[in-house]
Amino acid sequence: MYKIIPVRPFDLALFGATGDLAKRQIFPALYRRFQVGQMPPGARILGLGRSQLGSDEFRNTVCQAIREHVSESMRDRSSVDGFLKLVDYISLDATKTDDWRLLASRLDDTRIRAFYLSVRPGIFGSIISNLKGHQIVNDGSRIVVEKPFGHDLKSAMQLNAVLASVFDETQVFRIDHYLGKETVQNLMALRFANVLFEPLWNSQYVDHVQITVAEKIGVSGRGEYYQRAGALRDMVQNHLMQLLCLVAMEPPAKFLPDAVRDEKLKVIRALEAVEHGNIVRGQYKAGPETASFAEDIGDATSETESFVALKCHVRNWRWAGTPFYLRTGKRLRCRMSEIAVAFKDPPHSIFGDRSKLKGNVLAVRLQPDEGIDMRLTIKEPGPGGMRLIDVPLDMSFARTLAVGSEHLINAYERLIMDVIRGDQTLFMRGDEIEAAWAWTDDVINIWAEYDSRPIRYFPGSSGPDDALMLLHRDNRRWREIS
Question: In the prediction, which pLDDT does 353 show?
């Protein structure tokens, strides 16, 4: 179905190699790229961490991660053994000079060097300064930074300054795995490779846009982080913001990294400040078989939100008057991520009052079943007059493209290979991050000004009733979380 283009030889140094993200996402993604032949035989992956592990012990850990997170159809003994030969481990203490010298001695000056920081942001500065101090960074280096990219605008600017002290912006890859999803990229193809939609992609024809990222699980296991971050910082400032940008952006002159990111930045800067009445905070209660948010994080007095819904506007000619509704939350009815573009109702019905026409809806599903759904109105089959019904034109990637879900490229696979290629199209630029935080800080300041506290909602629901009212006031309805 697709062409495999091998990348150049590289050394990937993974800080935080024994962590959960490395086991669940990074190593399985690297293995799958090796298994299909995209990684060159000379590639090397150096796991770095404070744990005192031998190389063989670490390889066993990686092997177990592959067994747990890679489908059996893509696992064969020879591929796994071949991949593990590329993997090594260095126990590294940031305070010990000898450990950094050992890392420097393992890297090849003739290869691309990628440093992946899968660690808490508090130690970014120490790692980056040691990379510089021990002259490990060269012109062919790239650095990958996982979110959170700061906690507010001030900390984001400080982080960007630390990165800029060692790396050029062209070497910095701020990773947001949502941008690596197949459907997210197809949104750009849908808009800019088809003449059908772009003439209608504006406030004259679009009634509103809904972006939903719902999770069925709670925050158990991430309680400490979530207590500090909350849903706004964890999801809206980055994931939902990026999805909004891809929906609202103007067509770039070319499909090049800075051209695409310039247009996304314009959207963020055009976002109006959100009014207090257009924001809803929520926090899930305890259910019959589930703990409450406060119990999950171990703080009975917590006022951190596990749910956010808000209405915002993009202040430009294309979108003037068209609201964008964003919502995200934990312990909701099911796991679902979707972008829904709701077009306006036809201005006149020739079929009489009994045939009320509804506007078309284009829904882009990000998870769990990636695909695109277009709701159209047609005549109901059969005799007895003109009866109209809504039907979907449904394209599931797994069904339509005859690709099993296990063979769809994982977001981390694509993004890590883009790092090696030096393609920054799907990564956020420093000024994007700062603009997003400036807007998010305004929302946080509004909460503080009005002493806004989260509304409790039942697990397995669609969130607080106030979130439903956010659309009801505008004579609209949220799409079902299903």
Answer: 60
| Residue 339 β-bridge partners | 211, 364
Return d(Cα 131, Cα 104) in angstroms, integer. Answer: 9
> Exposure of 376 by Cβ count < 10 A (0-12 exposed, 13-18 middle, 19+ buried)?
exposed
H-run or E-run covering 307: strand 307-313
Report the candidate in 20, 21, 90 with the shortest Cα–Cα distance to residue 53: 90
Taking only the tens place, the pLDDT of each residue in 375-421 is 888 777 777 677 777 777 766 655 555 555 455 678 899 999 999 99
Cβ atoms within 10 Å of 31's Cβ, excluding its own: 28
* Sequence-ordered list of residues with C-beta below 8 angstroms from that of 92, at least 6 positions apart, any chain: 15, 48, 49, 50, 99, 100, 102, 103
Say if CB 345 and CB 357 are below 8 A apart. Answer: yes
Residues in the chain: 482
Query: Per-residue pLDDT tens for 247-261?
Result: 999 999 999 999 999
Calpha distance 463→280 (Å, rounded): 10
> Could you tell me where the beta strands, DSSP code E, fall in 157-300?
172-175, 206-214, 279-284
The pLDDT of residue 477 is: 94
Say what the pTM is: 0.91
Tokens matching residue 158:
């400080």
How are the residues of the chain apportioned to helix, strand and coil, as percentages rounded to the nearest 5?
40, 20, 40
Q: Are strands 371-379 and 361-367 parallel, antiparallel or unpaired?
A: antiparallel
Catalytic site includes residue 239: yes
From CA 273, how far away is CA 45, in angstroms rounded? 44
Catalytic residue among 177, 208, 239, 313: 239
| φ/ψ (deg, to 5) at 85 | -65, -25
350: tokens are 């020739």
List phi, psi (to 5°) of 225. -65, -45
Kindly state the tokens that stand for 94.
């940031």
Q: How many helices (H) and strands (E) does the chain have?
A: 16, 15
Q: Would you say 387 and 379 are in contact if contact means Cβ atoms under 8 Å apart?
A: yes
How many angstroms separate the CA atoms of 2 and 412, rounded? 17
For the chain, how big is the Rg over CA atoms in Å?
A: 24
Report which residue type is found at 66.
I
Residues 264 and 242 sit within 8 Å (Cβ to Cβ): yes
